[in-house]
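On clarity, I found the account of how folds are encoded harder to follow than it need be. Since the whole study asks how a given chain folds, the encoding of that fold should be made plain. The format is easy to grasp once an entry is in front of the reader. For illustration, here is how one protein appears when written out as sequence plus structure tokens.
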Amino acid sequence: MKELFSEGSFFPAFRKCKSLKEHLKLPKLLNKDEVVSESMGCLKCGRTRCDLCLNFLDESKHFNSMGTGIRYQIVDDLSCTTHNVIYLDTCLKCKVQYVGSTATQFKVRFCSNHKSDLIHNKGRCELAVHFNSSPHLLNNIRFIIIEKIHSTNNVDIIFTKREAY
């Protein structure tokens, strides 16, 4: 090595390891608001075998009320695996909307209640009563998750108030 490099051309140097803050901070080129808004909305879970996401869930950052015509922004990051949600069912055939809520994952509510009620002609909810009152196909129904309830206190009361809104 002495033959390749002259004496004194190398000296020991130490580099500080990255702190946790440096590992977690956002890239300098991106605005924090832009990063947050990219992930907000009702998004599909990404699993290739998720029947709900593939056939019934609308991906969107907003939703429209057919009753008032008002467009609302979705301000949470939501998917079929999200708990404590308010969701909107839309009958594409009749242009009627229903609002519902669940404390469990939305996919559990959909598979164990809604889809089963629609297929087996059970009228346990307004959506099933509407769906089975006149000829509908399963592809006439669409869902969008519109809000997550972040509070764990009095969830039932919050659900009732938010559904009515």
Observations:
- The two ends are 77 Å apart (CA to CA).
